[in-house]
Q: What sequence folds into this?
């Protein structure tokens, strides 16, 4: 993995997340582009690099102003660790894989962040049902864009230093 390329991609992702994603809002729900980048790295980077990259992407979301320092860094790190453990049993380059993995990961991360917000802010304006629905809508919107962004990221996999799926090392059982 090339870290300079990763930093450039992360900066582009932050700019797109803060500008374009807010323009794409539908009823206060916007896609999580940084999570799509995290899922792509978790599917295609070597194990330690994927988890470090996911943590850094989540931490950048926390620093941007989520108001919950460490929540997204933890969530992105956990999601990347789970994907790394399960990716050998997936068709990594298939659009349905990117859609389903992004859907479940986005839902889990945003649900966790919403629950954390409710627990840490006693006067939170949202209830658990609202948090559940917001996480579900965000996950669906993010997953709808995921195959397209994964396709773009797949085209620049060489400059990013990510190996194709068939060239990654697999673990031997036994």
A:
């Amino acid at each position: 993995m090339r870290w300079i390329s990763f930093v450039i991609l992360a900066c582009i992702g932050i700019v797109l997340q803060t500008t374009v994603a807010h323009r794409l809002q539908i009823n206060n729900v916007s896609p999580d582009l940084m999570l799509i980048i995290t899922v792509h790295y978790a599917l295609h980077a070597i194990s330690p690099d994927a988890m470090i990259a996911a943590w850094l992407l989540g931490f950048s979301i926390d620093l941007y102003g989520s108001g919950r320092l460490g929540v997204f860094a933890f969530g992105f790190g956990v999601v990347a660790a789970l994907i790394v453990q399960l990716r050998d049993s997936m068709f990594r380059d298939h659009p349905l894989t990117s859609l389903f993995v992004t859907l479940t990961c986005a839902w889990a991360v945003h649900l966790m962040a919403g629950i954390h917000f409710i627990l840490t802010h006693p006067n939170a304006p949202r209830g658990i049902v609202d948090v559940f629905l917001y996480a579900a809508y965000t996950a669906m919107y993010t997953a709808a864009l995921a195959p397209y962004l994964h396709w773009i990221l797949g085209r620049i996999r060489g400059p990013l230093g990510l190996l194709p799926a068939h060239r990654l090392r697999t673990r031997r059982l036994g």
User: Anything to note?
Assistant: Residues 3-162 form a domain with the Arp2/3 complex 21 kDa subunit ARPC3 fold (CATH 1.10.1760).
